[in-house]
Amino acid sequence: MDPRINVVEKRLEKIGKVIAIAGGKGGIGKSTVASLLALVLADSNQKVGLLDLDFTGASTHTILGLEDFHFPDEDEGIIPPKLHGISYITITNFTQDHATPLRGQDITNAILELLAITRWDELDYLIIDMPPGINDTTLDIIRLIKKIEFCIVTTPSKITTKVVKKSVELLQELNVSILGVIENMTYPTIHYAKEAFPKSYLGTIPFDETYENAIGDKEKLLETSIANTLRNFTVICDKMC
Amino acid sequence: MHEWALADAVITTAKKVAKEENLIKVTEIVVKIGELQTISREIFETALQQVLKDAPDLFNEVTCKLEIEPAGFKCMNCGHEWLFSDVKKNLDDDETESIHFIPETAHVFLKCPTCKSPDFEIVKGRGIWVDSIEGEK
């Protein structure tokens, strides 16, 4: 038997809430929401961790401006380095941001290794940035992290809405907690998520043209309307706090 | 050292099994470690002894046996098979350290010796598993 499975819960026992930022499609803003949610929570003096499990398309390090990649310190496991007050684990610290071509079993084993050897400090929240779709990563964290809760990101697109809806339905069938659905990059006249997810709809994050210039700069990121909207998501915050 | 975290996982697993099997004494734990973990036998044995210091009395007389399984790969592109031991000398210190932390980063730093593809299967010698736990009821 694989002994790593038996210590995952133990490694996460000092964490209040573990929230996966997920959605069915790529390019819908999961990494942006995960990174900025972690930033605004840290900026509000919450103890926050960020775990980027999008191994093959990792991008939270780009959003947060991590440029010097180095191995974490070790003390009876690996200690997540701090970035902008966030305890942060990204595979790029191990790959030096090179392309990381992994198949299913590789992803499962890498997740298991990271969860088994990472010694998270006491945290109010651990935010997990997920890859697109219902795949190995999603199934593994549902299997391994019993207290996992999902925050779903979608966009004002019929295509995205249809795919995300299937993901939400599957999570519901699996009795996984869904904190809510956020519609990202919205236009004033187009809203699909409110109709598609009437019970779990949290609100919108309008398209923010200042975001591109803010990427990599903590202060600018915190001034974006995306960050301000995430600060004001009272439903999420009420559930999270 | 992160070997402690893996040793802790082994003893946590042994405690779970001992409870499930109603063992009053655990006498032997056989652990297999894939070569790709690039873990030193001595360091892991030291870590196990450290973790066992805080283990309950039923582990007082336990013997831990450690086996390293050689790592092997098969290219998904051309079918070529090779061993980690054949290529690990080509890795620099940082690449070896990356694989030590997360063995799957081998896909970043190793390529098929024949066709240079990074698309290979790790057919053996990765991960860690508890092969057997012996005890008395």
Reading side by side through the largest sheet of chain A, how are the strands ordered? Answer: 5-6-2-7-1-8-9-10
For the biggest sheet of chain A, the summary is:
8 strands, mixed
Read across the widest sheet of chain B, the strand sequence of neighbours is 2-1-6
The count of strands of chain B amounts to 6
- Give the amount of beta strand of chain A, in percent: 15-25%
Strand content of chain B: 25-35%
Q: What top-tier CATH class of chain A fits best?
A: Alpha Beta
State the secondary-structure class of chain B: alpha+beta
The helix fraction of chain A, in percent, is: 25-40%
Find the structural class of chain A using helix and strand composition.
Answer: alpha/beta
Radius of gyration of chain A: 17 Å
CATH topology of chain A: Rossmann fold
The count of DSSP E runs of length 2 or more, i.e. the number of strands of chain A, is: 10
How far from one another are the termini of chain B? 35 Å
Describe the secondary-structure layout.
The complex is a heterodimer of chains A (241) and B (137).
Chain A: H1 8-11, E1 15-22, H2 30-43, E2 48-52, H3 60-64, E3 73-74, E4 78-79, E5 82-83, E6 86-89, H4 92-95, H5 104-117, E7 123-129, H6 136-144, E8 148-154, H7 158-173, E9 177-186, H8 193-196, E10 201-206, H9 211-214, H10 218-223, H11 225-231, H12 234-240
Parallel strand pairs in A: 1-7, 1-8, 2-6, 2-7, 8-9, 9-10
Antiparallel strand pairs in A: 3-4, 5-6
Helix pairs in contact in A: 2-11, 5-6
Chain B: H1 3-20, E1 25-34, H2 41-53, E2 63-69, E3 72-75, E4 81-83, H3 84-87, H4 93-101, H5 106-109, E5 120-124, E6 128-136
Parallel strand pairs in B: 1-2
Antiparallel strand pairs in B: 1-6, 3-4, 3-5
